[in-house]
Amino acid sequence: MGHRGLLLCLGLLALWLTGCNNSLHKTAQAQHDVPTVAGNWGNATDFTFTTFDGKTEKLSSLAGKPLVVNFWADWCPPCVAELPEFAEVYKAKGSQFQLVGIASDDSKDAEGFVKQNGYSWTFGKSAEAYRLYQIDAIPLTLFIDRKGNLIDKSVGGMQKAEFEEKLAKII
């Protein structure tokens, strides 16, 4: 492998480990601090999203069961790479938790991508969620317990073992 091939491989590895920069939702704050709200929902910031089948939902309406929220885009290689890993875990343990994918507004055809790959969990869009959580890089995945408390999060692509480890904290 020549220098160009090695540099390309290193660049792809760096992209995989750090996630995709989401310039439409970039904020001045470089941190990934998640704001909190008071109330009976817990400390995870509530937001409204529109599912791919046109329903409007509030995240807090999903309280009562552990919840994983994945922010992603169909143009983001680490996002696309982790979805089959999520699908394996969801197939095995989907009765124990809810999984919601929130696609970036700048996705090319997120709904078509989901249908083409046969992903069966809830997907939607919410510019509000990207703004409230100050998301400037994707994928970003939140792990929320059944009471609405943010327990853990992950920035960048996850493999199955890491996903299962973080999921175990809320199940």
How would you state the average pLDDT, rounded? 84
Q: How many whole angstroms does the radius of gyration measure? A: 16 Å
CATH top level class name: Alpha Beta
- Total number of beta strands: 9
> CATH homologous superfamily, by name?
Glutaredoxin
Question: Which stretches are poorly predicted, pLDDT < 50 over at least 5 residues?
Answer: 3-17, 22-39
**Shape, principal axes of CA atoms:** globular
**Mind telling me which CATH architecture this is?**
3-Layer(aba) Sandwich
List the total number of helices: 5
How would you characterize the overall build of this protein?
By secondary structure, the protein is of the alpha+beta class. The chain has helices at 3-18, 77-93, 110-117, 127-132, 160-168, and strands at 20-21, 48-51, 56-58, 67-72, 98-103, 122-125, 137-138, 140-144, 150-155. 33% of the residues lie in helices and 22% in strands. Strands 3-2-6-5-4-8-9 form a seven-stranded mixed sheet. The protein has a two-stranded antiparallel sheet with strand order 1-7. Residues 3-17 and 22-39 have low confidence and may be disordered.
